[in-house]
Amino acid sequence: MKDYKNVIIFDHPLIRHKIAILRNERTSMKEFRELVEEITTLMTYESLKDGVPTTEIEVKTPLEVCTQRVVADNSIVIVPILRAGLGMVNGVHVLFPSAKVGHIGMYRNEETLTPETYYCKLPKGIEDKLVLLVDPMLATGGSACDAIRLLKDKGCKHIKFMAIIGAPEGISKVAETHPDVDIYVSTVDRCLNEHGYILPGLGDAGDRLFGTK
Ligand code: PRP
Ligand code: URA
Prior knowledge:
- By secondary structure, this protein is α/β, with parallel strands linked by helices.
- The chain has a single domain (7-210), classed as Rossmann fold (3-Layer(aba) Sandwich).
- Helices cover 31% and strands 31% of the residues.
- It has helices spanning 13-23, 29-47, 86-93, 142-153, 168-177, 205-210; strands spanning 7-9, 54-60, 65-71, 76-82, 100-101, 103-108, 115-121, 130-134, 137-138, 158-166, 182-188, 191-192, 198-199.
- The protein has six helices and 13 strands.
- The strands form three sheets. Strands 1, 4, 5, 6, 7, 8, 9, 10 and 11 form a nine-stranded mixed beta sheet that branches. Strands 2-3 form a two-stranded antiparallel sheet. The chain has a two-stranded antiparallel ribbon with strand order 12-13.
- The chain binds 1-O-pyrophosphono-5-O-phosphono-alpha-D-ribofuranose (PRP) and uracil.
């Protein structure tokens, strides 16, 4: 895979450790869900280190008044791509408890592998917010590309996309289609199989999160 200015790959031992457990086919649904949340919190912490809108407030300590920089209220909107992206929402909420949530429903057509959008509900005023689009799996890149297109068509100007596992072809597609969007991926896997599944991957993230298999 080429080096892209807008792609940030995390290479952190704690995240790698958790992903190893996620991949294991014997990991339970409960543990899988908890790990997705924990990894998302770690990713959010890192990916927003330079990008969180902040504001100054005055704080009175027991000794004096000082000016402090804090996270601006209502400045971030979390947008999961349904279904699997839902598993990442709590992981962001741990750090931004009052962030509003928009939902984009998409599923991949199993034959063509192209995404079909079946739902979209976004908070009012999202166009002025930092939008954190989340989906654990970035395979062909079709779902992420279309979700970003949809957000841009709604006026969103500042979008970051976070995926836990990415395939090289999907990462390249999103990076090239949307060079203005920062893409954060915890680990890059080898390739896709003939059914569009990531190898070695973790299987179907939605099924593993919600027990639908
Ligand atoms: C999965 C995953 C992504 C998409 C990635 O969703 O959660 O949204 O596939 O594949 P792509 O990069 O090739 O578009 P899926 O369509 O299986 O729906 P689900 O989350 O409801 O199971
Ligand atoms: N979606 C998944 O859930 N897993 C994959 O490997 C690819 C797409």
